[in-house]
Amino acid sequence: MSSVKNPLILRQLFHKETSTYTYLLACGNTKEAVLIDPVLDCVERDLKLLQELGVHLVYGMNTHVHADHITGTGKLKEALPDCKSVLGSKSGARADVYVAQDENVKFGNLALECRSTPGHTNGCTTYVLHEHEMAFTGDALLIRGCGRTDFQQGSPSVLFESVHSQIFSLPKHYKLYPAHDYKGVIFHIILLLLFLSMWHFFFPGFSVTTVEEELAHNTRLTKTKEEFIKIMDNLNLPYPKRLDESLPANLMCGVTDPVPS
Amino acid sequence: MSSVKNPLILRQLFHKETSTYTYLLACGNTKEAVLIDPVLDCVERDLKLLQELGVHLVYGMNTHVHADHITGTGKLKEALPDCKSVLGSKSGARADVYVAQDENVKFGNLALECRSTPGHTNGCTTYVLHEHEMAFTGDALLIRGCGRTDFQQGSPSVLFESVHSQIFSLPKHYKLYPAHDYKGVIFHIILLLLFLSMWHFFFPGFSVTTVEEELAHNTRLTKTKEEFIKIMDNLNLPYPKRLDESLPANLMCGVTDPVPS
């Protein structure tokens, strides 16, 4: 096997209002691209960037059914009819392609391995790009934290097992890219904190981590399973502000996805 | 010459209030590190990250004397007395090490080449890491935009020449990392826009670009020099909100830098 890697175009994009990271990945050879966790509000930005980079979107993928923002997948599909939506097979939501454990999502000469990482939601999927030694963890693992487990089929016990068996088992130097830059607090608290100049406490401003870093420094997932469950069961987080609009839309692949006949 | 690169640890860090990017670079072999454009408000975060990564800060570098936030260099030096501050020789501000065109800043087995890129300020310096095919452009070049040129020795004509001769002359595939994610608008306008949900217009959420992308898609620097000067002379931007506190502090390497005897 050649040690020369297939070139990757990678762009980490940020939606400031919900602190959501979207990832554009494209095969440098064939220009086939995927977007992981696109945000409805940013679809125009993403379409423009795809065009500017000269890449062709084949999949709009989500790591899970989001509760804090509406996915851009439906609107992307409207603009780019060749694009297919991808979700974990246990998500309970609509998608063109459902992926299960160990399946691959191919774009050009590159492939994302799907790892089922439930616990934040049932359908949570981590996408691993082995050739470039990185993984996209969604809300299963955040930098120094993790997604909440108190609604949408959440389970701290299941999440603990998912992260340890599917993410922490990757080689230590693998880079991990999460779906958000925050530590599990919710947007309407943050808005207030903005004006108290306390952003940096809840939005540390990190963009990437590694397996090794999280094994050593994750504030929750370095604990024992029992301690982790206790922490997660006592977070007492408020109801996500945008859940009532986000969840129904995301179960249908975003607001503009056409209703099936 | 060996084709095996000296490993680089790179972290792009974000200060949300001023949309400033700070870059942590460390030599993966020796663990010597530099911070480019550290922010005073984020020094505790940065110190913690340095410790967690097990790296040793040798330089706190600035691409220029900032007008929108206070540099973290002074406070970093207070916590880490071995760390030296670095600035462009034409900055007119205080630093331990002044760098001029073509000089190198070494950290471990890696080195940043200094390129003088005045126009936003006189002392603006772009730091190029040739071994990893990337450059840190400060405010000289932003993604699809550039820094303002209407105060602090700014000159659109000089900036145009700087970017074209020192940045656009790099190989097309080089990655470019800017000091900010915005398009030249100012913070107190943005605060208002937050509540009008217009973030994405002024904060596109981009984190990296390439020489090739900016040569093709920069909204200002793809114009002729005459057109560029006209654009920059007619921006009519308001006075930076934090200039009155930032500039005097940054001329002294950050508020906590001791006064020389």
Automatic annotation (TrEMBL), chains A, B:
Keywords: Membrane, Metal-binding, Transmembrane, Transmembrane helix. The chain crosses the membrane at residues 185-203. InterPro entries: Metallo-B-lactamas (IPR001279), Mito_Persulfide_Diox (IPR051682), POD-like_MBL-fold (IPR044528), RibonucZ/Hydroxyglut_hydro (IPR036866). It comes from the Eukaryota. Residues 19-180 form the Metallo-beta-lactamase domain. This is Metallo-beta-lactamase domain-containing protein. It comes from Clavelina lepadiformis.
